[in-house]
Design brief:
InterPro entries: DMP19_C. This protein has 155 residues and is an all-alpha fold. It has 10 helices and no strands. 77% of the residues lie in helices and 0% in strands.
């Protein structure tokens, strides 16, 4: 099976149980559902979502749309597939956005409730995140489709 096919299949399986209202209301059941998936499905979901968000609007969009609640899990998933440079970029973005150094639980709540005002009005943060976006786009050595596909095939 080609990388793209295996990724699509696992992503479909991962999102099959997500309820639309969880995403709209930013309900904690969304987080609970994703973190209870098998490693294979969780890794697929987290990495596909990150990659799509970065290429559609960057790290700022990733956080504004609530996906940043999965930052810690996504860093682990990136490392698991061998995307260490992209994991480092996400970690840098997380430190910029979570400048108050909130715990993961508090940060998740603040992301979901859109309580991190700098995500909406801080030009310095926007510029810093844009720089990380550019590094993510320009990283030709870590091809997410190849790395994730290889990970899933080896599973």
């Amino acid at each position: 099976m080609a990388n793209q096919e295996i990724i699509k299949k696992n992503y479909r399986d991962a999102v099959a149980g997500i309820m639309e209202e969880w995403l709209i209301s930013k309900h904690t059941k969304w987080y609970e559902y994703i973190t209870r998936l098998s490693n294979k499905l969780q890794t697929t979901y987290l990495i596909v979502v990150l990659d799509n968000q970065i290429f559609n609007g960057g790290f700022q969009q990733y956080y504004v749309n609530g996906y940043g609640q999965f930052t810690t899990e996504t860093i682990r998933a990136l490392i698991a597939i061998g995307a260490n440079r992209k994991a480092t970029l996400l970690e840098k973005a997380y430190k910029l956005v979570n400048k108050d150094n909130d715990s993961d639980v508090v940060f998740r709540k603040r992301i979901l409730n859109k309580e991190i005002s700098t995500l909406f009005n801080d030009d310095v943060l926007f510029k810093s995140l844009d720089d990380l976006d550019d590094q993510y786009y320009d990283d030709e050595k870590e091809n997410i489709e190849e790395l994730l596909g290889g990970y899933l095939k080896a599973y």
